[in-house]
Amino acid sequence: MLKNKIFNISSSEEFEKLSLEVYNYQYQHNPVYQKFSKLLKKTPENVSNIREIPFLPIEFFKKEKIVTEDQKAAITFTSSGTTGTVTSKHHVADLRIYEESFLKAFEAFYGSPEDYTFLALLPSYLERTGSSLIYMADALIKKSKKPDSGFYLDNLKELSGKLRKLDEAGNKVFLIGVSFALLDLIEKETFELQHTIVMETGGMKGRRKEMIRKELHQILSSGFGVPMIHSEYGMTELLSQAYSSGNGIFETPRWMHILIRDPEDALSYVQDGKTGGINVIDLANANSCSFIATQDLGKISGSQIEIMGRFDNSDIRGCNLLVL
Asked: Both 224 and 105 in a single domain?
């Protein structure tokens, strides 16, 4: 099966070949995607490279059931949203694919989860159901096998004490938090962390004014006493994540690829170094749709991927991005 090949890609040629196989498979077995593809006059017969593959607008996850082969969902992940807004739904047929995706990606970028104590400051996500980020964080916490790993809601004093104690003892700590909560934490106390990775997942969720990533990272870097703030780029509609170890430069795992489309012509791509809309190929989305046109802006310069914000007319879901 295709999903057995996803995590064994070793070259760009293999990625492109498998992407075309997945396109063919999803065209045949995903009614919504097939209809969309036909409207663009795209079929497996006239798609010969990844730039010719049609990318489904991410808004479809709010309006349609995006599934391949209509398999029963093992879980349905939902996006965050304000009262009255329509949220995205990602029906996941095989949780093993999601688990393998985020574990292999984490190991590729950071090593074994067992090396870290995970402190998850994700109050807005904990306050609702259906968060794929909470599912991932919970799995990493369990994989760490550290008694101090866990979630935090409003108990910032307890978190501060534990963070300071673990770091001073020389333990490797992974603090992952939503942006507004990390800002709340350093407003109460400042740190000089030596052994801790601080990762923001973006989003103020109406709790604070939005700010550009550079400003946010400067404030967080100063407050935590760390040279760089790491970031995660993921969303409800994807089963893979890209990671940044600083300066807003992201890397993707081998089975995920980002292209930059022309903001004025969604079927064309911009030149290297130009800003445009982000299209994502996520082969882990084997049972939904692997080709997603997001509402996010970015640019690629050589091998460097920058995630820059959202289109002005996009709703702010508070999921892993900041506005320009």
From this structure: yes
Q: Specify burial of residue 159 (Cβ count, 10 A radius: 0-12, 13-18, 19+).
A: buried
Range of the domain at 289: 2-85+255-310
Instruction: Tally Cβ neighbours within 10 Å of residue 285.
Output: 28
The closest alpha carbon to 238, from 295, 188, 278, 280, belongs to 280
Residue 96 gets which letter from DSSP?
H
Tell which phi-psi region holds residue 76, choosing left (phi > 0), alpha (psi between -120 and 50) or beta: beta
Query: Are 307 and 321 contacting, i.e. CB atoms less than 8 angstroms apart?
Result: yes
Considering its fold, how many domains does the chain have in total?
2
Kindly tell me the sign of the dihedral angle through the C-alpha atoms of 269, 272, 275, 278.
positive
Give this prediction's pTM.
Answer: 0.92
pLDDT digits 0-9 by tens, 196-218:
999 999 875 556 666 788 899 99
Instruction: Evaluate whether residue 321 is within a structural domain.
Output: no
The whole-angstrom separation of Cα 218 and Cα 247 is: 10
If we measure between CA atoms, which residue out of 235, 239, 234 comes closest to residue 97?
239
Residue range 135-153, pLDDT digits in tens? 999 999 999 999 999 999 8
Question: What is the sign of the dihedral through the CA atoms of 134, 136, 137 and 138?
Answer: positive
| Residues 36, 145 within the same domain | no
* Residue 323 located in a structural domain: no
Cβ neighbours for 317, distance < 8 A, ≥ 6 positions apart:
79, 80, 81, 203
Q: Do 196 and 273 belong to one domain?
A: no
User: Amino acid identity, residue 161?
Assistant: G
**CATH number of the domain bearing residue 205:** 3.40.50
